[in-house]
Amino acid sequence: MSNMSEIFGSNVFGDSVMQQRLPKETYKALQRTIKDGRSLDPNVATVVANAMKDWAIEKGATHYTHWFQPLSGLSAEKHDSFITPISDGKVIMEFSGKELIQGEPDASSFPSGGLRATFEARGYTAWDPTSYAFIKDGVLCIPTAFCSYGGEALDKKTPLLRSMQAINKQALRVLKLFGNTDAKSVKTTVGPEQEYFLIDEDVYNKRKDLIYTGRTLFGAKPPKGQELEDHYFGIIKPRVQAFMNDLNEELWKLGILAKTEHNEVAPAQHELAPVFTTTNIAADHNQLTMEIMQKVAKKHHMVCLLHEKPFAGVNGSGKHNNWSVSTDTGVNLLNPGDTPYENAQFLLFLCAVIKAVDEYQDMLRVSVASAGNDHRLGANEAPPAVVSMFLGTELTEVLEAIEKDIPYGSKEKELLKIGVHTLPRFPKDSTDRNRTSPFAFTGNKFEFRMLGSSSSVSCTNVVLNTAVAEELKQFADTLEKADDFEEALHELIKKTITDHKRIIFNGNGYDDAWIAEAEKRGLLNLRTTPDCLPYSVSDKNIKLFTDHKVYSETEMRARYEILSESYCKTLNIEALTMIDMAKKDYLPAVSKYSHELSDTIIAKAACGDIDSTYEKELLAKISKLNTAAYKKVQKLEEATLKAKEIDDTTELSMFYKDSVFAAMSKLRITVDELETMVPAASWPYPSYGDMLFSVK
Ligand code: ADP
Ligand code: MG
After folding, report:
1. Nearest residue by C-alpha to atom 22 in ligand 1
2. What are the structural domains of the chain?
């Protein structure tokens, strides 16, 4: 592999390139925009655009694009050439400040949830100067926000940037109360760990369900699955290693610091973790990572599956959103620190997170909702659909001591006084042991583990940032008025723990007893997407996001429509794919094999009554099952037709969940049972074993 320091960020118009190529004044002005969020002078933009273009052309780029994240969950780009015609049929390479700052892609086919009538196709993209431009496949990509003519957000970046502003504002107020005036800005940071599957492309190309839906809709369990857990952190196969090396290099070129990679629990499953960075950049990087993973896999004749549950009965893939809050002076506000002062500040920020997670557990659940993730949450490998928090025993004991005014620790007889006493150190390994909690404190950050592998991290971080901003706002409102700051702080922390400790759970989140206990505590258990989506437009949640100017009510209702619609569409495609596979492939294959069996039976009888018990019994069994499968296909067809008669989105998603999905599951059981009886040679699709062990 080439020298990492040479390739790292080589395709990024990053800080060092800017320093080299921009006039000093321009560089400084741009830095003010990037660091302090000041608005950008159009003249500065012109100079930046020109330097960007020259740099991109030297790197072989001929086109540019405003790169953005529409609500469909992918990323979008429309390429424009730098070429501008001048007189005499000649051309020059041009890129103006205006073209850098604003674009106008045809927005008519991106989902808008009714925000933009289709005939009003105009949508605008606006440059996000805090996320560096980069070159991908010979195209200069400019990270942008995407909104409608009326200014409503049509993407995932706009609300994310707004939520970062919200938490910045409130966190600075709180810091000021602690006498901290050095910090000019507070930003949240994210390091998303990404899980994925790799399978051979030959096997993939033979599975209609993987091609159309990203997951297997049929398939009997293989004799060997993941029960031995021998794949976890196991030796990486040479083909996978070659892929990982290539992937790292491609990511490094884009300035994405992919750091750790290992095998996961399921066969063919792997994980990649980057070094954390500012949230909006981390979100851009994660979108890029998913895209590059798929491209590099293709180059190695493999397919990278990002679906949350490509294989039933085998662990699915998630994404862990490691999240923290830091000042521009480099202080991690979720780090307990060493002094009583740092401890007090830490405890207040911790309380803000506890209160936020408790009060907005519904929105956190909504932020990870998708048809794919419904298969994962509450299964074996992922946290349940109930949101709870893990703090570890040490920290929980500290909180208890504060709440109940009881002495903390064995040596000290004194009561724990905030701002006076020092907290003990919380060793990282004592906080990192619980892998079953949806929301775990891991020493100096929180790890939210409910995200599905294919989802954008934006939605979750919009919720986290805004909910924590709200709690910090309430805290600042109280503390700013207090006569005795330390006394008021102590009381505030105490009250928060008393009111919100129900969300703290340090036990095994995979245990059924916990679900019962959680329900007793009044925590929400929103099992599926249709169950949780209506919460996204509750009065409480609309108030939160509109108060902090993160979403308008119209934007929230639009998002609700889009999420519901996407759930229904996903299930509809899956149902139609199952019907197609059953009618065209599975049922005929079983029928054909029945014919072979009956031929054998006839031949044996013709040879003088040779015993054909095996063939006869098998024939009877598979014929019966095939008829049952046929009936179930008809039931599924009826359900999909009935769905067409329902207009209301909420009702429709419930129907898909209760009727269509139920019919799909029934059909699968029968076909999977047939798979165990019919010889591989007569079976129309590669088996689970063929797929999971396809990469040698
Ligand atoms: P592990 O979870 O394997 O023990 P780490 O805790 O070191 O590993 O890191 C897991 C992920 O958390 C990495 O992507 C890392 O960059 C990220 N991370 C570490 N510190 C922070 C932070 N302050 N803010 C956000 N993410 C962080
Ligand atoms: Mg982790």
Report:
1. 324
2. 4-154 (3.10.20.70), 163-180+194-219+226-546 (3.30.590.10), 566-692 (1.20.120.1560)
